[in-house]
Amino acid sequence: MEKQNDQSRMDRIVSLAKRRGFIFQSSEIYGGLNGFWDYGPLGVALKRNVKDCWWRDMVAGHDELATIQGAPSPYEMAGLDCTIIMHPQVWKCSGHFDLFHDWMIDCRDSKRRYRYDHLNGRWASHRDKKVFVTTDQSGDEAPPSIAAKAQKFFGLRAKQVDEIEWIGGLESLAGSITAGTVTLADVLGPDAAAPGTLTEPREFNLMFETRIGAVAGNDDDRAFLRPETAQGIFVNFKNVVDTSRVRVPFGIGQIGKSFRNEITPRNFTFRSREFEQMEIEFFCKPADSAAWYRYWRDRRWKWYLDLGLTEGRLQLREHHADELSHYSVGTADIEYAFPFLAAGEFGELEGIAHRGDFDLRSHMEGKLVRRDGQLVVETGDDGKPRHRGSGKDLSYFDDISRERYVPHVIEPSAGADRGVLAFLCDAYHEDEVPDEDGKPRSRTVMKLHPRLAPVKAAILPLVKKDGMPEVAIELYRSLKPHMACQYDEKGSVGRRYARQDEAGTPWCLTIDGQTLTDKTVTLRDRDTLVQTRVPVGEVVEMLRDRLA
Ligand code: GAP
Question: DSSP letters along 193-232, please?
Fold first, then answer.
């Protein structure tokens, strides 16, 4: 396996993503917009395939009569597509209005804004000056960044850097301030020329605000772009139960855009301000919820493996009790060792959370808080609920057991863009293949799972004459109704293979002189490079079988 923490590998992936039309920066011709990304022709197909696989594997293709391995019982699945802007009370009861914030810190000198928990620093001294030098870089990039800033601050030449005396190791700014070992007056901000320019940390709500209607201005018009798709599912729980006749246990799946005004979007698409989520809210009997939590954690882990992510780069991490949200009974993250992270670090792809009855109760009763181990409605000084719930009964009546209860929820919540990024990073390979003369040629190949590959097959006439294009076009037309395929007759066959390898196309079908005599084509496998002859009449069925 390639070395983790390889920024230059990440740079090559980002450059291929741009060069081959997977991902572009949004509004690039105007200089781009930080935290927003567009998917190009190959990228949109890849992302759609990720979402389609999820939808088919989790929702549409679910066999509700079978007991899937690891599941406590058979269960049903339904789908939903909710609006991005919802009633503002949704976010008040869910807790996002009061609690969905990060701590930010501004620099009066550089006018830059940072996430407080992203700043790290180290004490440095030279002659009579001592300063706590900070950086917003993480992992292996933090120490050289701090060293460069200290050198600049002390006005030293490169050969003088050894004169800097370092006191202690790299520590988080937030931790050092809480511990009282650093004050803001001592801190040299990441882009500041002098210490003491960072402001006190302030809360910053991550929800994007907007106004509804033509007369904007008063608080009643205020609305928010959803920061997660989940709440649309909770507020429709009763609608789905009443209209689709599903019975607990069942899940509702939704794919859609979410928006978070991240203070420091970074690492390509990993932390974006507009992104897509693929979320399931699974409703079950409270007594069975721990078993369902384990089922969904393991099922989602297996999904990534089945679609080809390298197991050694994945990590399933159960949260410690002190990391859990105030309502959560258990949470696990599925994490991936993205190449932009330091060795040993992982980034979250998906969280699987046991949310208890927090969400349904919040939308019935009002915003909840945990007090003495119990979830209770938060009240203001006047004793009234701080944020009033809908008052609608969101409990479930089981007409067989004659029990009424508020179902518990297991939530597997995945990011479609982070999934795409992980699949891209994992697929990226550089190797050597023999060229047409048998000499080794270096190639870049995206070893995407065939279900995810934007183009499944390329049809290549060896030359543009002797009737080969005609046979190739006929094959292209018979394959196209069944899968994404491309016809390509431009350039040498070696260059055409190289183009398809970079796009991640698993199979190339070449029409050559022999095709005209025995009606066979060569089928080249992207990963093994093995070429086999296949009767042209069997190609469609063979590739359809491989994709099934
Ligand atoms: N409903 C639960 C929820 O939204 P989350 O952990 O905040 O949980 C779920 O988000 C997933 O959404 C994450 O695991 C990640 O894949 C994706 N996600 C969250 N914030 C993101 C961002 N700023 N950019 C890209 N993906 C993001």
Answer: SSSS-BPPPEEEE-PPEEE-SSS--SGGGEEEB-S-SHHH
Ligand 1 contact via 348 beta carbon (within 6 Å): yes
**Three-state secondary structure call for residue 94:** helix
End-to-end CA distance of the chain: 29
- Are 499 and 493 within 8 A, CB to CB? no
Contact 307, 422 (CB under 8 A): no
Instruction: Characterize 434-455 residue by residue with b for buried, 16 or more Cβ atoms within 10 angstroms of its Cβ, and e for exposed.
Output: eeeeeeeeebbbbbbbbbbbbb
Distance CA 460, CA 476 (A): 9
| Atom in ligand 1 nearest the alpha carbon of residue 277 | 12
Residue 321: pLDDT band (50, 70, 90) is confident
Q: Is residue 523 within 6 Å of ligand 1 at its C-beta?
A: no
- Which residues neighbour 352 within 8 Å (Cβ) at sequence distance 6 or greater? 293, 296, 297, 300, 331, 332, 333, 334, 410, 411, 412, 413
Task: Give the residue ranges of DSSP H helices in 272-383.
Answer: 289-306, 358-365
For 6-38, write each residue's pLDDT tens digit. Answer: 889 999 999 999 999 999 999 999 999 999 999
d(CA 284, ligand 1 centre) in Å: 23
Q: Is 272 in the pocket of ligand 1 (CB under 6 A)?
A: yes
What confidence tier does 436 reach under pLDDT thresholds 50, 70, 90? Answer: confident
Where does the pLDDT of residue 215 fall: very low under 50, low under 70, confident under 90, or very high at 90 and above?
low
Euclidean distance between CA atoms 153 and 398, whole angstroms: 69
Hey, is 378 helix, strand or coil? Answer: coil
Cβ contact 360:407 at 8 Å: yes
Residue 278 Cβ contacting ligand 1 at under 6 Å:
no
Given pLDDT bands bounded at 50, 70 and 90, which one contains residue 3?
Answer: very low
Tell whether ligand 1 has an atom less than 6 A from the beta carbon of residue 279.
yes
Average pLDDT rounded to a whole number, residues 346-354: 97
For residue 418, the CA-to-ligand 1 centroid distance in Å is: 9
For CA atoms 500, 420, 335, 203, give the dihedral sign.
positive
- Residue 508 in 3-state DSSP? strand
